[in-house]
Every structure is written in structure tokens, then in C-alpha cells.
Queue: 3 jobs
Job 1
Amino acid sequence: MQKFPMTAEGLARLEEELKLLKGEERPAVIRAIAEARAHGDLSENAEYHAAREKQSFIEGRIAELETIVPAAEVIDVSKLSGDQVKFGARVTVVDEETEEEKTYRIVGQYEADMKNNSISISSPLAKALIGKKVGDSVEVPAPGGARAYEITAVAFR
């Protein structure tokens, strides 16, 4: 079985999502399907088709999470330290062209969330940063051309 690196917080979020899907979402969509069936002709019943589509999505996500959660290899970031970028690090970089500063956390592929500045360890930026130290510059391939970043801070918390 392939193992997936993950933070404890990321695993907890996935376990909570799985619990919610199995305990609340799945029963609710089953009730919605039964209610829509009671309305008669299923061929022209939009509520029935929408509920079936939602059920399909929920069942697919449950199956996906039931594969990911047992295969998670939790890495305790609080026990990590050093000045080199590795899994779990919060890395502050400055775009050498725009001078814009951003802080990213390097996490597992199933917990990455750009809205929270969490990037997957398999992303081009994370791959470029891994093994580097404060003061190092990295070049990252991007659709609009390569971008250069300077690492200004590395922290584990």
C-alpha cells in the first residue's frame, strides 16, 4: 500500500470530512432520493436526478477518503527543525520580479489548499524549495515563464 505524507491537522480534516459524509450527507441524500421517487415519474423528475448526481459525488468522495485515510503517514511537524526546507515547513519567499512576499506551508498532496497557502509537496514550487535554505534563490517553471523566488525564512510550527 502506498503511503501518503500528511500533517496531523490534514489527516484530522479528512477524517472529519469522511465522518460528515457517512453520518450526515449520505443519509440526507438517500432521504432526498426517496422523497423524489414518491413524486412519481422519474424520467422528468429534476429533483430525483439532482439527488442521484449528488449521491454519486458523495459515494465517490467516500471511496476516495477511505483509500487515503488509512494510507496516511502522519509526520509530526512539531518535532522538525532546522534551516533547510522540508515537508511541513512554513517557507517565506519573495518574488524577485515583483518583490511580493508570501509564506507557504509544504503539506501532503491531499491536504494542499491554496486559499490557506498550503502547497503540495509534489507542486513545482515545493519541489524547487525542498532542500534549500534562507538566502537561496529558486527558479520555478510557470505557464507565463519561469519565476524566481528568494527564500527569506524557514520555520516549523
Job 2
Amino acid sequence: MQFQIDTPEKIGMVIRSSRKAMDMRQDDAAGSIGVSENFLGKVERGGESVHWGKLFQVMRELGLQVYVDVPDEVAEQTRQNLERLLEKSEQQ
């Protein structure tokens, strides 16, 4: 199931709803993920200044993924540019 994410609050709602659907308490989830309960609470409230790496760590551990919908008219050029950037980053 896909949900449109256009605000920090919405991604926080999805994370909180997913955690609750897994019947996990916030403190237990934070501990098993390796982040503080304070951080997880901030994410779930849609905090505007969260650490990206930790945000994706939380999402990964809850089995959530993010996709970007690129407009058709630039999709092919975006794919080519992304491939070049990925190759360049692998060489470093």
C-alpha cells in the first residue's frame, strides 16, 4: 500500500502507525532499532530537523521504504544521471 508523503508529519504518522500495527511500544522499538526513544518520538511527531541517516535506519528496521515518483518527461535522463552518480560514488 502506498501513501503520499509530502510533509514530515505524514512520514511520522506512517512510521508511528506501522510501529503500532506491529504491536511495538515506542521504547521497545527505539531500543531494538538502536535510536533513543526521544529521537523516535521526534520522528513520529514529524520533527523538521531529524538526522537523515537515523530516519532511514528507523524506516529500514520497520520494513518501510521510500520511493520518488519522477515525472515521465525527465525519467530517462534522471535514470542516466543517477547511474553516473552511483558509479562515481562507488569509485571513491
Job 3
Amino acid sequence: MARLSSCSRASAALQSHQERTRDLHKAKMSLLKAVIDTSRGSRASQDQRALLEESMVEVESFDAGTALDLDKLDGTWLLQYTSASDVLSILQAGEFPFFKAGQIYQKFECKGRFDGGQVVNVVRWSIPGLLQDGEGATLFVTAGFSVVSARTIQLEFKEARLGEVLISEELQALLAPAVLPRTFLNLQILQAINSLDVRVPLRGRRPSNERRSLGLLYYLTYLDNDMLLGRAIGSGGVFVFGKTQSF
């Protein structure tokens, strides 16, 4: 009798787990569906924003109360949606003909850690006619982060760096026409542009008793192997990321 009761409990637990997995999958699919046609948030209407907020809350409920797993967080995450004004300004600028915003990533380096690590914000962009489409230039913004509560991390920005600049074929043809011998000067110009590396330190001197800005607090509300949801405390912006391959 006891054995039957034990089997019944195990069967009920398995059924409950399967139902929860199905419900979670359905909630995640609803969120991803709501992201479509918002241009990563830059063209989201009020109704779309409201629907996205409801969908986010539903997904977040499946991960509520659990501590952050930094091994799961480690890796590269591709931005799929945001309402953060600083990121939206980049995406909206990409609608102008002289600037095109490419992919935006967050790359966390924290495997095997429990107290924090490093995150690199990666923004790819281009200038039509001057730089290669989509990935003509890459901006890297590096920050250290520490875990300050079960699901909240605190960022401290260190450096902004402009990575490799890839000029367009049109500009290369202008600097070094294919029909003429490439002069030493033209080759030097091409090499200098392609190897451009500009770094700006972001650390500022701050009194030891001065509190960090609330805008540097990042509440990670949901995390699994393929989805990351976050909310910036202070600014109120939300983020939806999907796991992607390292680059």
C-alpha cells in the first residue's frame, strides 16, 4: 500500500513538472510573439508595451524566489526588446539614412563565480556608404558587476572602446581605385582606418562614502538556458535577451 502511495506521489510530481514545463514554454512563446514587429522596442505602441509587460510578468513568475545562477548567465545574449531610453535612442537613430544600428549584445563573463564578474555591452553599427553594412563598427562598453541580492547585480562601468572599423567597398574604391596602382599612402590610410582602436576610461573618482547611482542596479527577473529578462532599477527600462553564440 505504501509502495502504491509512493508511486502515486511520484506520478503526480512528474505530471506537475510536465504541466509547468508546458506552461512556461507557452508563456515564453507568447512573450517572443509580442516582441515581433516592435523593432526591438523602437516602434512599440502603447498597446504593444502593455502586452509585453503582461507577458514578461507571466514568464517572471516561473523563476520568482530563486537565486541567480551565474553559470547560466555566463555567455553572450542578443537583445530582442527593450524600453530603456538610452538603448532606444540608439535604435531610433538607426532609422535615419546616415546611421544604421546593428545587433546589440550583452556578454557576461562569470562562469564558476558566485559574487560577480564582468559584462561587455556590444553595439554594432554602420554609416551607409562609408562603413560595411550591419557591422561596420563595433562599440564595446565594459563593466564589472557584483551580486548584491539574490537576483540583483550592481554595475560599475570601466571602459568604452571602439573596436575594428570596417570601411565599405565604395570608400575603399575611392581611397584605392582598382584601376590604378594602390599607392603606399592609400594603403596606409586603409590600414589606419581598419585598425582604429579608440578607448575611453569610464571610471571616475568618487568619494568612498558616496552611494552608487540606482541606475547601475540591474534586476535579473528571469534566467534559463535561452532567455534572460531584466529590469533596470531607477530608469525603469526592461530588457528581453536571447542566448546566442559567442563572437
